[in-house]
Amino acid sequence: MSSDAKKRKPKVIRSEEGKRSRHEEQEGRYYNEELEVDVRDPKIDYQLYKETCEDLQRLMAEIQDLKSKGSKDMSAEIEEKRIQSCVHFMTLKKLNRLAHIRLKKSRDQTHEAKQKVDAYHLQLQNLLYEVMHLQKEITKCLEFKSQHEEIELVNVDEFYREAPPEISKPETTSNDPHQQTLSRLDWELEQRKRLAEKYKESLAIREKILKEIEVKKEYLNSLQPQLQSIMQASLPVQEYLSMPFDCLHKQYEIARHLPAPLYVLFVQASAYSQACAHMKSYSQPYRQDKKLVVSIEGSVEEAKALYKPPEDSQDDESDSDAEEEQTTKRRRPTLGVQLDDKRKEMLKRHPLCVSLVVKCKDNSSLNLTFYFLMNLNILTVKAKVVPVSELTSPISAGELLYPDTVLSCLYPGDDGKKTPNPANQYQFDKVGILDLSDYITELGHPYLWVQTMGGLHFPTDQPQQSVIADNTLSASHMEKTIKLLRSRLMSRLSLHKQFASLEHGIIPISGECQNLFPAKVVSRLTRWGMIPYEDFVMLPYAKEVVEFGLAQDTHLYYSLMIERGTAKLHGAVVLNPSYCLIPPLFCLCLNWKGERSSRNDENIRGTEPYEAFQV
Length: 615
Known about the structure:
Elements (H helix, E strand, L loop, with lengths): L2 H37 L2 H28 L5 H69 L12 H7 L2 H4 L1 H4 L3 H57 L1 H7 L3 H11 L4 H21 L11 E7 L1 H7 L7 H17 L4 H12 L5 E8 L5 E9 L4 E9 L37 H8 L8 H4 L4 H6 L17 H33 L20 E8 L1 H6 L4 H5 L8 E9 L2 E9 L9 E7 L3 E3 L4 H6 L8
């Protein structure tokens, strides 16, 4: 180490000692100022602060003026004012320290007061919690109910009347409610013990009866194969006697799965068939009439599936959700596809249907199939005419045996083109169906008499979604409807044969009517055919018939022309669907020496009600 470094080292030590002494002096002054704060008035210090700031401001301004004058003689005066300014700075620093000390003491006092408030608040919360706990305990005590209060004991009079004296103890319990309650509970326990013993005895008897039932069930189960073999052996006898018990049993088993309207129709039609057979043969009361055959068709399994609850499981739900998400990602159905699906669901038929075969004397039959639309709550029917032998189809026969018109207006005004249920219109509006007639070819006709045969009645004043099948309503209309169906079939077949003979120029005449026809026929039928309703309305000589409402779109219309020399007789025939209960209507127009019709010729007016073929 050099000699200069050795000389400077003591100086450095003295400087650090000097700094430490100054620091200790400042700390001492700081602690003295803490004591001084307690005796000093803050207002006086604030006034001193203002005066010091004013003096300091004044001294600075004077130093600025002296410097601006630039005189060398003024340096001593400037130095003196600078010293005064430093003194004022020292005063400001001291006031600043005193202000900070006061602030620290105020904060400490505020913190101590806040801690006291928090302690008092916590103590208050504890006291409130204890009060609330005591209130809850008091409430529990007041609301306490003993278990004996839930037991329905016998009344006091009955207790003293039935209980033995060793339990009732009337001398001690009559005046003491507590002892009375205890005695009543003892009597209740004694009664329950007796009932428990009776219960055990009843269980033993029940087990004995169950064993006897099991023995009888085994015996009956052993009889079942024997009965089946006997029934199988009796099938030829049933067929010979026309008593198909086995077939009827199967049909009635299937009938359990029919909806209510079809079930009522099946039961009432079967009853009517059996009643007709019973009138013919009293020796075989359970035989069905061969002229009216009732049966059930369709899928029984699908009908059973309609009433089975879906088997829900979490795995199936998760799988179905995943599949549904995949399908929705692949293809989203359009609005049209959704409406088509809704329409199909709305027009859905029950899987089972009732078939009714109405036969005539010549063994020609009318096959009717009745369906039930589950969502619309209505019945529909499809018809098919089955003649005995194959008929030659005349051109003019047109729609006589057509399935969609053969049953039209069986009852007046019942054309089967509109739904009889008023509630269906609201359902149609939701899925965009304008008219049910667009779907009649596929679903069948919802005639009113079909609803009646199923026991359905639809009030027009209060539309309703659910209807009730009434057996009484069906039974009251069954006989009349069957007779009308048989009459309609016979009249249409007869009319069909007449049209076929007419097209071949053959008019069958009975002996009673022979004198009404001339010996020599000089007129000639040159035209005969069916015309639509629109063409009939346009005929000028049929104007009055249309105006009076005698021609409707449900009727059948035919056009004819008969010639005799230069005379031509034009005619139109209005055939009511209920022919021959309602006779046909003729409109004639003769072209001979002018145009003659019922409006200007008495002979034509007198001829029109009769058959035109007599001219």
